[in-house]
Write a structure and sequence with these properties.
Layout (H helix, E strand, L loop, with lengths): L1 H38 L8 H9 L7 H19 L2 H21 L9 H21 L6 H12 L4 H20 L1 H21 L6 E8 L2 H12 L4 E6 L6 E9 L1 H14 L3 E8 L11
Antiparallel strand pairs: 1-3, 1-4, 2-3
């Protein structure tokens, strides 16, 4: 029985690993297509490191794909020290695929030179790509790494940190390339963020997690160690079984929901988990310092 159980767990890990690989790869390629075939030819800028790279590529004779990798390296080093090796490996792979795909799509003729069409469809396609990468635990942009790290140590949400960074980027884009470029870029970012929410639940707002289980202490310990979050215990009783249940409540970010799924699967406990949007957090949101 133990051998069958171990074999089944190994097969699960293999399937999960392959699914993650294909999901991150597909997402990075789709995002690169959006940048090169919709956004860049029309001077519509993404946020974060990609947006900075797009602006710099107009003044520095370096390929966009190379710039994104070079600028992201310090963020990856920082993430290795603060977030963990597994996350950095996924992020580095996603960024590498994204960079290569940018080089492949760059010589191709743009899908459209209509700014409005490029804003709308570029935002949709980019949102699908980035959403896939995030859904499978990867990351395309160094500012997301900074935002996750800042969120873990402060009361600021991931979405708020990224929004603040992107407002500065779009302001600069408007000054350099004209107000239309800045405004179109902001519209594109709004569309992209909404599509990301459809593809991958979370990051623009917190996610409340409620877990009903008989193994509350074990799960609470794992959440504390992996995410630096405390949980609130609520005692309950199963209607049919009549047994006492632990109801755990905590708030995580979108980027952490993927890891929560993996954690619950690896623990192999009997639990019922729900994840919901949190539009606002008032008061202390306890995180590891």
């Amino acid at each position: 029985m133990e051998e069958n159980s171990e074999s089944g767990f190994n097969r699960f890990k293999l399937k999960r690993g392959l699914l993650t690989f294909f999901g991150v790869t597909a997402g990075a390629i789709i995002a690169a297509f959006a940048v090169e075939e919709f956004l860049s030819p029309n001077n519509i800028f993404d946020g974060g490191v990609v947006g900075v790279s797009m602006i710099l590529s107009h003044f520095i004779p370096i390929k966009l794909g190379v710039l994104t990798v070079v600028i992201n390296i310090p963020f990856l080093i920082y993430a290795y020290k603060t977030i963990g090796r597994v996350f950095v490996m996924k992020a580095a792979y996603a960024m590498a695929v994204f960079s290569v795909a940018l080089g492949i799509f760059e010589p191709m003729v743009a899908t459209t030179y209509d700014s409005l069409l490029a804003t709308v469809f570029g935002g949709v396609v980019l949102g699908v790509g980035v959403g896939l990468v995030l859904r499978f635990g990867g990351c395309l942009d160094g500012t997301e790494i900074v935002a996750i790290a800042v969120s873990k140590g402060t009361s600021f949400s991931v979405g708020n940190v990224i929004l603040a960074i992107n407002v500065v980027i779009y302001f600069v884009a408007g000054l350099v390339f004209g107000i239309d470029a800045g405004l179109y870029s902001m519209i594109m970012y709004f569309i992209t963020s909404k599509i990301i929410d459809l593809v991958e639940s979370g990051m623009e707002q917190g996610k409340s997690v409620m877990i009903v289980t008989e193994d509350g202490q074990l799960i609470a310990k794992e959440i504390r160690e992996r995410f630096g979050r405390t949980v609130t215990f609520i005692r309950g009783e199963g209607l049919i079984s009549g047994t006492e249940k632990d109801i755990l409540y905590c708030v995580l970010t979108r980027a952490e929901i993927h890891d929560l799924r993996l954690m619950m699967s690896s623990l192999g406990v009997n639990a019922f988990t729900t994840v919901s949007d949190v539009s606002e957090i008032i008061g202390n949101h306890i995180k590891r310092k």
